[in-house]
Amino acid sequence: MLIPCPWCGDREEVEFRYGGPVPMGYPPDPQTVDDAAWARYLYYRPNPKGALEERWVHTAGCRRWFTVTRDTVTNEITPATDGSG
Amino acid sequence: MAEPHPHPQQLWRNPEPKHSYDVVIVGAGGHGLATAYYLAKNHGIRNVAVLERGWLAGGNMARNTTVIRSNYLWDESAAIYEFSLKLWEGLSVELDYDLLFSQRGVLGLTHSEHQVREGKRRVSANQLDGIDAEWLTPEEVKAFCPIVNISPEVRYRVLGGTLQRRGGIAKHDYVAWAFARKADELGIDLIQNCEVTGFDLDGDRVIGVHTNRGLIAAGKVALCAAGHSSALAAMVGLDLPIQTYPLQALVSELLEPVLNCVVLSNDINVYVSQAHKGELVMGAGMDAYNSYAQRGSPHVIEYQVAAALELFPIFSRVHVVRTWAGIVDVTPDASPIVGLTRIENLFINCGWGTGGFKATPAAGWTYAHTIAQGQPHPLTAPFALERFTTGALVDEHGAAAVAH
Q1: Which listed site, A20, A39, B123, B240, has its alpha carbon 20 to 30 Å from B49?
Q2: E strands, B132-277, where?
Q3: Can you give the pTM of this predicted structure?
Q4: DSSP three-state, residue B384
């Protein structure tokens, strides 16, 4: 699988480490979060059959993180729209 | 090695779906078929359909590496997997079908000080749980499995290993077919090419399933769809803490008997056994990324084969015939999710990840109980979905994350 690094271009998958689906943000006020909401933050991630927004890091290249959208059935990747990652 | 079982022309009917059933099971893999069988046999519930999107036992049941063992770390896991192993020990007779269940021993190699400590700890935990477990020194490993390379000159030298002599393998297709035949005999409809596209709800209660072959009413609906569980559950707005990954495996050409046991190595992501027919069956570690594609990346296979060749130099000229991937449903604590849901009469059995095959009879037995009684079986009660909220996880990553 070729992964489009926003800075280095298409590179082999072995140059990257997977960061998983884009996580939900850290709860702004964790003291007020109940168990169910805390469980969602800790353990629940998107797992769609289809388009998935996910993080990769180009460990063997520029070592920068970025976000792409990949289809989990076809592995077709839509590159990040800007270089900011 | 044993001759294959002589095979009858037809093992089950191919019925049209009826308009309604007492129980509809979604997914005709090993777990779904076993659940159907035990619903009929243990609970007398026979008005049951098992719906399968593709063909019977064509998903992970056709793709796994058939390792059976019960030497898990925690009491909750050890209890369910040991119950399963005991069912395996009588299953060929129970189902009247030679499943080629072979208790040839499962050897778990260690290559680091940490793994040695973890392995010894697990042997002790297993013994306290009444499960057969032994710790072997490198020389004892070599005596038990003579083709393992225990030279200190390799990158990942063997520092010892765990051994469960009652562990082994079975012929995965025969297991599915045996459960299917018996379930069919007991009057259960096994319906292939029938994809569930939605659920019929009455408030917070499920009353049927929509399929590509029409609406089927159901008293109870039991999900049993492994890697596709998230997608199914999403149809009723139910989120699951599951990630779906490809898990690759391969077979070699047929060889004379050369490997007398199952060898697992968590450290270097290899597990290998020799099937009755003669091919080496090897599994790799999971691919890194979420996928439903039933295929993985070649470098995972390359890494696995490199490690296998260091362990078994004798395999250096063996040809790989075929590689493939199953898609496995992995939970945050590497333990399954079994039980009730917030939707009345909707049950789930999923999250068995990379190790569901060995649990097939116990998963079927306990899930059938859960469906029939409307409450968890004592053996699977610790594996309810609520544990992710209460925090009572059953963390089996150490014993089970890679080589289930």
Answers
A1: B240
A2: 134-136, 160-164, 168-169, 189-191, 196-202, 205-211, 214-223, 243-254, 262-265, 270-274
A3: 0.95
A4: coil
* Inter-chain touch A42–B388, beta carbons under 8 Å: yes
Average model confidence (pLDDT) for chain B?
94
Quick check: B271 and B283 in contact, CB under 8 A?
yes
Per-residue pLDDT of B88-99, as tens digits, reads 999 999 999 999
* A14, A39, A42 member nearest B299 (Cβ): A14
Please, which residues 276-295 of chain B have a Cβ atom closer than 8 Å to chain A?
288-293
| A13 contacts B299? CB cut-off 8 A | yes
Cβ neighbours of B202 (radius 10 Å): 10
CA distance A28 to chain B (A): 19
What are the pLDDT digits (tens) for B321-344? 999 999 999 999 999 999 999 999
Domains recognised in chain A with CATH numbers: 2-79 (3.30.2270.10)
pLDDT in the model for residue B401: 40
Quote the DSSP letter at residue A15: G
Alpha helices in B235-390 (DSSP H): 298-311, 360-373, 387-390
Please report, to the nearest 10 degrees, the dihedral formed by the alpha carbons of residues A63, A66, A70, A75 taken in order.
-10
Interface of B with A in 214-273 (CB under 8 A): 228, 230-231, 234, 239-244
Distance, in angstroms, between A4 CA and closest chain B CA? 15
Would you state the structure tokens that stand for residue B88, as one six-digit string? 């395996």
Contact B199, B208 (CB under 8 A): yes
pLDDT in tens, chain A (85 residues): 999 999 999 999 999 999 999 988 889 999 999 999 999 999 999 999 999 999 999 999 999 999 999 999 999 999 876 554 4
- Asked if B392 reaches chain A (Cβ–Cβ under 8 Å), the answer is no
Cα–Cα dist B236/B199, whole Å: 7
Closest residue in chain A to residue B238, using alpha carbons only: A44
Which amino acid, B333?
Answer: D
Give the percent of chain B with pLDDT over 70: 97
Residues recorded for chain B: 404
Residues in A closer than 8 angstroms to B246, CB to CB, are none
Quote the ipTM score. 0.93
Percent of chain B, pLDDT > 90?
91
Check if the beta carbon of residue B293 is closer than 8 Å to that of residue A74: yes
